[in-house]
Amino acid sequence: MVGQFATAAEAVGATVKRFTTLSEAITSLRELVSGRSVAASSLPDSVHSLIAPLHFASRNMLDQAEVGISFAQAGIAATGSVLLELSAPTERSATALPPVHVVLLRASTIVPNLAALRDTLQAALSANGGRYLSLITGPSRTADIERVLTIGVHGPKELYLLIIEGE
Amino acid sequence: MARDVINQKINDAFLRKALKNFAAAYPVARAKAFEGIDFEELRGRIAAFKKEGLGQLPELVEEFRASAEQAGATVHLCTTPEDANRTILDIIRSKGADFLVKSKAMTSEEIELNHYLEKHDIRCLETDLGEWIIQLAGERPSHMVMPAIHKNREDVAELFSRETGKECPPDIPYLVQVARETLRSGFLTGQVGLSGANVAIADSGAIGIITNEGNGRLVTTLPQTHIALIGVEKIVPSLAEALDVIEILPKNATGQKITSYVSFIKGPTGGEGRELHIVLLDNGRLKLAADPDFSEALACVKCGACANVCPIYEIVGGHVFGHIYVGGIGLVLTPFFHGFDKAEEILKLCIGCRKCNEVCAAKIDIEGLIVDLRDKIKKPVGQKFLFGTLMKNRKLFHTALRAAYIAQKPFQGKGGRIRHLPLILNRETANRSLPPIAEKPFRDLILEQSESRVPSPQPREKVLFYSGCLADFVYPEMCQDTVESMEALGYEVSFPQKQTCCGIPARYSGEMEVARDMARINMEVLLEEEADFVVTICPTCTMSIKHDFPKLLAGEPAWREKAELLASKTFNFSELAARKAGTGDIRMGSGNGEMQTVTYHDACHLKRGCGVHEEPRKVLRELVGVEIAEMTDCDKCCGFGGSYAIKYPEISQEVLKNKMENIAATGAKTVAVDCPGCKLQVEEGLEAGGTGITVEHSASLLARRLKKG
């Protein structure tokens, strides 16, 4: 299913990298960032401590961040999509404003198709209070001028999906 | 529709190329997107839950309102566009704002929100690239999903140069980057954001938004206040139904498996000061949902597929083929959302090919609804006489057709074809070449031959031949061939003399009462004589008998029962012929048996009106013994559409040109068809092009093959 996920995601312009451990993925993430300023949505503590040394853009200047980092709740193999719960506007900004978006994803959370994600989505939408869920598939795109596919209109121009297959 | 506007679109070379390329690319992308998915099952499910939901729409609205408010949103149910506009203005003003940043919402186009707000000194900024282009140009979308499909890169460069004050080259990646940079400040400074929604979920109060560019996420994230303007018909009971809509919509709209972004938003997020206002738009929907005849139209998920496959849209685009909502469903929704006066002209533009029905995500009978709506619009002067008096009286009608034979004589050119149609002396028909009305219609020919026809040696299945007017009066030899082939295939054939027009021209012109009378007359004639089958060689007639007669007379139980009986035994020629393939009933002759290659054109009403497309090929391969070189878009309309070719000759001719190209590309010297209307249209195109390619009804090809040696 990871292979299918990768194929589908690459078909829509995402870059997929596969790793065994989280620390390998983080090493790759650091290389990707290579000194640029970052913004991150809420990350598991284990991840957050590993990326703490990166240069974070200030919270009220998220439009200046160059790379957004997030951790997906789930993936969809059929379409190469990732599910992010981003119920705080700053978390969404971190994944929507920077030109580059890097998503960490555990292979064990990949489901075959959209319908198989129903219970996860339902649980999130049934919880009390406001919720904002995003399914993200490939970089931002448009074909509004002469139907020519062009990448990177308003959202990220580059989408990296770092898959952790072990642990 | 004004002729000059139609001609302007026909002569717009960029528009034509853009739409033609899209028409060619779309089916390929769509098929790929649906790989591994049972489209029929999925849309069947959507049709079912939409139908159920529309039946209880007021309850769904209340359930959604309660759930959304529970989640912290404020819900406003607005009856009219004015209500919705005012509500939105009030929300913006209550925030002390004077600037609205927007992502794409067809509902906003529907209520002409920008126009209203700008009158009240609120600046609006469209951020969907296509919508922004349209906003800068001061136009309206020509496609529901690709609003600026009619604009080329030069147009866009000019608009962007004017807006930004910087010279923008006509380079697409450059222009997209200009949009990114220019609109970014709009997102960051917008005080209030407005979006539409593709779906709203009653049990959780969440809404779902599908976008590609990422502007939808920014509009619903950066401004403190988010307004979602949503048609009430978008409400579905639960997440399961919402996911079906999200599954089908991008695949059907643009051939994408899924869009870049699908967002589910439930209540305001971000704490203090954040607000979510959901403006539910009625604008005739609640009334329409309760309309037994037309509520189906509200099942639409707004994917735009009906426009994507429409042969007329491909020629004229959405500024002609629609009002604010475009494409087939746009024609249907316009009278309910914007009034019948806005719909009168556009409802006539549908050629009736039913291609839209085949792809509709909610399985809506779009073409059927368009035809039914024509009953409700103003009819042209003279139409009442034509249908009401002339066609209802068979003898009078047939006498008029016979008189036409005499009248046309002076206009017949080489090969007997009519070069100048005496009745329609206008510019567009001047170059048309039409076959003449025959000297003797088939109904007379068969009377002369009845003596010589061989009585059956043993009992055979009896078939009543319903020829249709066009074959009877223009192609009597096609009728003759039908009788000969049917007899050679082992059927006993008889032709009821009192048969008359099936009523389709009346129905298509909105004369439903006349269509009902025609149905009753033909039913009596065709049920009077004992027979196993009724055979037709015109699929429009078959469709009329099988589908329209029962529908037209649904309210009259005695007639409905007869209609259903007749429907159950009426078939197209190819269906009755194909069932004899491989049986011992066939009397093979020594006729023209040399192998040759033909190409096959599927008549719209045969393929989509009757669901028949394999049988004709079986007849050609197994009975006629020819190879078939399939053409591209073999089931796409030829542009005939009955009176359409006369009402809109300029459009009809353009549709025909596409067919000519596809035929020529096969290299076949014969085009086989199962419809006299298609034969008339395609033959005209081939003759005008001097191609030497002939068009034959399958019945004629078979008759030649089975002819006694």
Walk me through this protein's architecture.
The complex is a heterodimer of chains A (167) and B (709). Chain A is α/β, with parallel strands linked by helices. Chain A has a single domain (2-164), classed as Rossmann fold. Chain A has helices spanning 2-11, 22-33, 45-51, 89-96, 118-126; strands spanning 15-19, 38-40, 67-71, 74-76, 81-85, 100-106, 110-111, 131-136, 141-142, 150-151, 158-164. A five-stranded parallel β-sheet of chain A has the order 1-11-6-3-2, sandwiched between helices. A four-stranded mixed β-sheet of chain A has the order 7-4-5-8, with helices on both faces. A two-stranded antiparallel sheet of chain A has the order 9-10. The longest helix of chain A has 12 residues, at 22-33. Chain A is globular, with a radius of gyration of 15 Å. Chain B has 709 residues and is an alpha/beta fold. Among the domains of chain B are: 405-578, Glutathione S-transferase Yfyf (Class Pi), Chain A, domain 2 (Up-down Bundle); 597-706, Rossmann fold (3-Layer(aba) Sandwich). Chain B is built from 35 helices and 18 strands. In chain B, the strands form four sheets. Chain B has a six-stranded parallel β-sheet with strand order 1-10-7-4-2-3, with helices on both faces. In chain B, a hairpin with a 5-residue loop joins β5 and β6. In chain B, α16 (327-338) runs antiparallel to α17. The model of chain B is unreliable at 419-431 (pLDDT under 50). Classes of the chains: A alpha/beta (167), B alpha/beta (709). β8 of chain A pairs antiparallel with β9 of chain B.
